[in-house]
Design brief:
Length: 134
């Protein structure tokens, strides 16, 4: 059964996490290995759809982030961040406002904070580089 939640307009909101094919995929992954990296590779190798594979990656990455200390940092290249920012830009451009209560605000606030941090960091890096060059 697919869980549907009412949005602000009283319409059903579809949730990918509650699709039976996604639940089956997670079960298949868990049966294959205890390592989520190995699970991902297996799911990719067997031709899992991009939508389900991305949902699996997003879920597992978020779950893993909860398990580590909050002050741990990660390194990304400027190109990797630019690619992610392009994806976020596309998602924000198509983000519907009539999501279930709290979902729109939660996502908007997280995306806004992340984008601001990227913008401020990029500007800071630019000025640091210019100072070194002069």
């Amino acid at each position: 059964m697919i869980f549907r939640q009412k949005n602000k307009l009283g319409l059903d909101t579809y949730r990918h996490l509650d699709q039976q094919d996604y639940k089956d995929l997670v079960s298949k992954a868990n049966a294959h290995s205890d390592s989520v990296v190995t699970q991902y590779r297996h799911l990719k190798n067997i031709g899992t759809s991009k939508k389900l594979l991305l949902q699996f990656l997003a879920d597992q990455a978020q779950y893993k982030m909860v398990e580590i200390p909050r002050d741990i940092t990660f390194e990304f290249t400027a190109a990797e961040l630019e690619w992610m920012l392009r994806s976020i830009k596309d998602l924000v451009n198509h983000l519907q406002e009539d999501l279930p209560d709290g979902v729109y605000e939660y996502n908007f606030n997280r995306i806004e904070d992340f984008l601001y941090k990227c913008l401020a960091g990029a500007e800071r890096k630019k000025w640091e580089r210019l100072r070194r060059e002069t």
